[in-house]
Specification:
There is one protein chain. The protein has 273 residues and is an alpha+beta fold. It has two domains: 2-75 and 196-261, 3-Layer(aba) Sandwich (D-Maltodextrin-Binding Protein, domain 2), CATH 3.40.190; 79-180, D-Maltodextrin-Binding Protein, domain 2 (3-Layer(aba) Sandwich). It has ten helices and eight strands. The protein has helices spanning 2-14, 31-38, 52-57, 109-121, 133-141, 153-162, 208-225, 227-233, 239-242, 246-272, and strands at 45-47, 66-74, 78-81, 98-103, 124-129, 148-151, 167-171, 197-203. The protein has a three-stranded antiparallel beta sheet with strand order 1-8-2. A three-stranded antiparallel beta sheet has the order 6-3-7, covered by helices on one side. The chain has a two-stranded parallel ribbon with strand order 4-5. Helix 1 crosses helix 7 (208-225) and helix 5 packs parallel to helix 6 (153-162). The longest helix is centred in the C-terminal third of the chain and has 27 residues, at 246-272. The chain is globular and about 60 Å long.
């Protein structure tokens, strides 16, 4: 994401104590960048690709190993389908008898969203795990067994060119994406899906004092670049611009996600019995 390099570049320009070096490692919902950080020096940062809460709750990384430093904010990812009608939104799935979600695993935000849709519209639902959301969306575009996925607005636009049947039925922000104003937020459609957000993380070896110092540098960079540019290029809500403490904001959202995840886990267990 070029905007991340802009933030890091600005952070370099406003201070001299630390040198920031940006190394792109996109893919697999942040796993590739986290794996790269595991092999890097101890005083390193990583930007989660959007769904760090999923990686923590699925046990793929340890909550005590990585700590939030600064956050970009909510990310307006989209619920994408090769069924339904974009003009109507998720309600257009009500007539479906069976839908298959491609996600990064059970308990992921994609999986939970599919379960919410199933509960609301009573269709048969299956969740198939993939290493990355992109793998699932590619199968969706090719109409190869996947009907639902969660992906970025940029990917959605590209995939829709390849297959006009691809529809965006809702976004994961509390408000419409300014670039896709006709796609309604899921929460406005009665689907209380967990938020998706990008976060700068530090590995556990980095002292708290240094994490706080780096967090202030990054937050100052976000404020200096300006809220309008951030809203246009990246996200809806940025903690640094709202005066919110990143740790409080981060774990509050994480705990909301776990509450939703645990509620559905109990419902699934009760259904089996």
């Amino acid at each position: 994401m070029p905007f991340l390099f802009e933030i890091v570049g600005h952070a370099n320009s406003i201070q001299t104590k630390y040198q920031f070096v940006a190394v792109p490692k996109p893919g697999a919902n942040g796993l590739l960048s986290i794996q790269a950080m595991d092999q890097s020096p101890q005083n390193s940062l990583v930007v989660s690709a959007s769904t760090i809460v999923e990686l923590i709750s699925n046990g793929q990384i340890n909550r005590d190993t990585y700590h939030p430093v600064s956050a970009l904010g909510n990310n307006c990812w989209l619920l994408i389908s090769n069924r339904g009608d974009e003009k109507i939104g998720v309600a257009s799935l009500a007539k479906e008898k069976r839908l298959v979600m491609g996600s990064i695993g059970n308990g992921s935000i994609s999986h939970l969203t599919g379960l919410m849709l199933q509960k609301k519209y009573n269709f048969e639902f299956e969740n198939i795990p993939f290493r990355s959301t992109g793998e699932a969306t590619i199968l969706l575009v090719g109409e190869n067994g996947i009907n639902l996925a969660v992906d970025t607005p940029q990917n959605y636009k590209n995939f829709k060119i390849k297959n006009p049947k691809v529809q965006a039925l809702g976004n994961f922000c509390p408000v419409p994406d300014p670039h896709l104003p006709n796609i309604k937020p899921l929460i406005a459609q009665g689907i209380n899906a967990p938020l998706i957000f990008n976060t700068f993380l530090a590995n556990g070896a980095m002292p708290e004092e240094r994490r706080r110092e780096l967090g202030k540098i990054l937050d100052d960079s976000l404020k200096s670049i300006g809220s309008k540019e951030i809203a246009e290029k990246c996200s809806y809500m940025v903690p640094a611009l709202q005066g919110l403490n990143i740790n409080d904001w981060y774990w509050e959202n994480y705990n909301k996600y776990l509450i939703t995840r645990n509620r559905f886990a109990k419902q699934l267990e009760a259904a089996k019995n």
